[in-house]
Amino acid sequence: MPKYLHTYPAGPSIEFDAAQNQPAMTTSFMILTGGRSSRFGSDKSQIVFAGHTLMDRTLESLPAGEVVIVGPSFKHGTRSIAFTQEDPKGGGPVAAIAAGLEKITSDLVVILAIDMPYAGEIVPLLLSRSVDRDALIPADSAGRVQPLCAIYQTSALRRAIIEIGDVSNKSMNLLLGELDSETLIVDPTVTSKLVDIDTQADLEKVLETYNLKREETEEE
Asked: At 150, phi and psi to the nearest 5?
């Protein structure tokens, strides 16, 4: 398994040329923790994977920039993090995104679900592409999209949330229906990085795929 963990200094939202002859756009990162999962049986952010919790893996894989975590707050020594919580708590990903947007100040936002252990390895790919529409969402060769590992125009997300109205327990498909999204078909070697962990069986499958041993989940 490739080494990927690096510690980056905290700093302002990163800037990059979205396309030639276009002004630089600022980018932030929003991490959705989901809290305690009924399907998994515990807080997935504290799953220990290859020696690190999923939360630490995600944070350490991100370049410098504004980070907003939707979920319980905690202390992190290497960077500044803004915390918020969806209302109601456990109200689903759309409610979580709506809450996170209140803390976002950048032009673009990369949204990552905490239960994707390799999501951080997709981030450089997302940041290397211009976001000409409302969102750029990776998908496999069969067209299955992963909207919780994608980059969005912040203003477009805000408009979509307003259109939806009551965001509690709303599906991501409903949110995507309000957006003009571009699908990024990724290479099969990258597709494997889009795996997520919803259940204990999912975790066992990922561990087997990458020849890793089961480790105890850290308690808060």
From this structure: -150, 170
**Domain boundary assignment for the chain:** 14-209
d(Cα 96, Cα 172) in Å, to the nearest integer?
11
Spatial contact of 96 and 110, defined as CB atoms under 8 Å apart: no
Q: Are 109 and 154 in contact (CB under 8 A)?
A: yes
Domain 14-209: top CATH class: alpha beta
The pLDDT tens digits for 141-170 are 788 899 999 999 999 999 999 999 999 999
Residues 12-59 have pLDDT tens digits of: 333 434 444 456 899 999 999 975 556 665 678 888 877 888 898 899
Q: At residue 32, what are phi and psi to the nearest 5 degrees?
A: -100, 120
One-letter amino acid identity for 11?
Answer: G
pTM for this prediction: 0.82
| Cβ neighbours of residue 162 closer than 8 Å, sequence gap 6 or more | none
Instruction: Give every CB contact of residue 3 below 8 A, 6+ residues apart in sequence.
Output: none
